[in-house]
Amino acid sequence: MERPHDQRAGDLRLLEALLFAAERPLTAADIARHLPEGANAPALIAALAQDYAGRGVEVVERGGAWAFRTAPDLAEALATAREAEKPVPRAALETLAVIAYHQPVTRAEIEAIRGVSTQRATLAPLIEAGWVKPGRRRPTPGRPTTWVTTWAFLDHFGLASLADLPEAEEMRAAGLVVGPDAPDLFAAAAPPPAEEEAQEV
Q: Which range marks the domain in which residue 38 is found?
């Protein structure tokens, strides 16, 4: 049963306030816990997203969660207002690409794809940015930790979900993989030897 117009308007105002005050994107379940009984969270999210479409800020989905974000076409105009970000080393970006396209992936598997060892210093900027986190341990000898991306990764790169990641050919065309000796970050790695997996921490 549809809620009366005045109640629905109040629900929309509450949803707007929730998203505005939230420190991170909120799932429909998060939102539903704060709405009055009988409120339809998914329908309200869709209505609010439609209300904000084309405005300076928009309601966007990030990994199954929702948040207010600046409209993409205003990014260039706002560039001078942003604080300079610490550049991420190329080795870390390569590692991020491997994790994004192969997750859940162990450090040994990352090394097999990149062809070089992966030090903690390589993962550190990705962890610090909140783009990757440890996943479940692999049920293999040594129970190596896997690595996965986070909603913050999706949010930073403007992706609603991992399904929105560019195709491998697009990434190659963009020059992420360059030179004859560059690693193919999108090719699957052969399973590493058992003893190498056992060293994973």
A: 5-77
Residue-wise pLDDT for 128-149, tens only, equals 989 999 999 988 888 999 999 9
Q: How far apart are CA 79 and CA 103, in angstroms?
A: 31
Decide which of 25, 46, 77 is a domain's last residue.
77
**Do the Cβ atoms of 107 and 195 come closer than 8 Å?**
no
Which amino acid type is present at position 99? I
Task: Kindly report the CATH number assigned to the domain that includes residue 31.
Answer: 1.10.10.10
Distances, alpha carbon 71 to alpha carbons 17, 18, 54, 141, 189, in Å = 19, 19, 7, 47, 38
Burial of 38: CB neighbours in 10 Å, binned 0-12, 13-18, 19+: exposed
Decide if 74 contacts 54 (C-beta within 8 A).
no
16 and 96 belong to one structural domain: no
First to last CA, the chain: 53
